[in-house]
Amino acid sequence: MPWTPVVKMIPNHKPYIMEETHNQRLPNTTAKETRGDNEDIISGARNTDQLEKLQQKVKENPARIEHKEGTPAVVIVNNGGPEQNHKQSIGKPLSAKGHALMDYALVASLLLVPHLLGMNKNAKRIYAAEALTLLPYVALTKQPFSIKGLIPFSTHGKIDLFNVSQFALQTLFKPFRSSKKELIFNLSFTAIAGLTVLLTDWKQQQPAKS
User: Fold this and answer.
1) Which segments of the chain does DSSP mark as H helices, in order?
2) Half-sphere exposure in the Cβ direction for 60 (13 Å, CA)
3) Which of 124, 157, 179, 202 lies in the 20 to 30 Å Cα band around 141?
4) Would you place residue 52 in the very low, low, confident or very high pLDDT band (cuts 50, 70, 90)?
5) Is the dihedral of CA 189, 194, 195, 199 positive or negative?
């Protein structure tokens, strides 16, 4: 590389010519300052090398930039592998099989528990009528324990919502609100039936008996 003189002006001194500014120091400068200049030059060289490597990596793996209004841009670097969706949905624990077992248990409780607790006659009659109404549509729903799979499982879920609402409403009727036993049982039954509906995976279709 051709030599280019560098002229440095020092206050109260004559112009001073240096051949290599990074290897020589000016008058009235210390060796420590010269070493600092050299370190800055070396550090700059390293940063330049790192920048070149980063630019090369970006060229090989182009980044995808997502812009959202009102938020800073988000840069997602593609490392060469397929993109993974980390969103996981929490599944509901009750399948069609589990829901069917709960339905049969609830129907049985309507027939047995009122007699075991010695409820009033009106409450016993109402619960018996409700059990005889619920049993056919449970047995005819498309589920593993059905007698004949005629009613779609999703339709069964819609009927369940109506039934839970009806049990909650009948708490206000005289045969139930006038006695502590009837009131507690009706509220408990409504809560269990409601949880059964909420915890059922209605999209999971189980094979039904033909």
Assistant:
1) 31-60, 96-116, 121-139, 153-169, 174-177, 180-198
2) 8
3) 124
4) confident
5) positive
Paired tokens of 21: 């500014």
Is 90 part of a structural domain of the chain?
A: no
pTM: 0.56
pLDDT tens string 93-121? 999 999 999 999 999 999 999 999 999 99
d(CA 89, CA 189): 29
CA gap 68, 205 in Å, rounded: 39
Work out the end-to-end distance of the chain between its first and last CA atoms, rounded to an integer number of angstroms.
92
Q: Quick check: 50 and 36 in contact, CB under 8 A?
A: no
- What tokens appear for 121 in the block? 């006659």
Does 84 reside within a domain?
no
Closest CA to 144 of 201, 96, 107, 106: 96
Residue 52 lies in a domain: yes
DSSP per residue, 134-148: HHHHHHTBSSTT-SS
